[in-house]
Amino acid sequence: MDHLACLTPADLQANPAPDLSAFRWRLLAQGDSWFSFTAAQMNAHANLLEELVFRDKALAVNCAGQSNALSHMVDLESAPEFVRLLSADDAPVWDGILLSVGGNDLVKAAQTPAHLPDGEPVALHLRLLRRQTEWGPPSAGVARYFSEPGWATYADYLSANLRHLLSLRDQGRSAGKPVFMHSYAVPMPRPAGAEDASGPWLYPALKAYAIPAADWAAVSRLMVYHLAQLLKRLAADQQLYPGLHVFDSTAVPLALAAPGSSGNSGDWFNEIHLNHSGCFKIARAWSEHIEGVLNGNTGGKKKA
To answer: Cα–Cα distances in Å, from 191 out to 15, 215, 269?
Structure first.
């Protein structure tokens, strides 16, 4: 098994240019902080791409590599290298596209406050959590805290952005090639921010909404499972989302971080980022999924 080799878009402009034909699988990658190769990210925690392994030599040109990680799906519009390498007439032909997107959007939606700075309430369809006066009955479990109207807004946003991304793929030379996404593992809301002073992310949001601490883990699970089910549902609709393949990271057993911990714990470096052991576990399983699809797309035959 060989680790995925990673290049940046700038590496493609080197003289001499790298020989992409030396690899059986040539992939284009874009994503959030789970993919980012910025120095700050690499010094802080692990990278999922680093842990991908394949039976045959595989290469990824990672557009999240030396730039800021995506904070929103719509940031694809401000990722010119990725858009060019995905859709330009002179771009390489990719065997597949690797995506790590949607997680930052989910966190941002969960962080939406109940009120604006001027005290004006934020409409329920624009946030994922409910104020105490809006909680459902205890019989609903942790779903009583969750805004289904807000989830519908988020789901519509993510779905539309993915359709747009697939249309960009089909404008270029890699039309119809598989797009591989992962869902996200379930984080433990806790006071564990990043070394750059960002975060924690879910912990202050759940506190602000006065959700009981005993329910934090279950609320986190509810939101992440909603995202996983949404992505799998989109991938099942091959008419609207042709070539989309989703790996369910929630099915990979991970060691949860200890509640209340403020640093590296279990398979987590901080509240929402995996450490090396966490990345290893998810990447090994995702690698098998990716390679299985790639081999299926070529009938299991070596490319000439």
So the answer is: 47, 15, 12
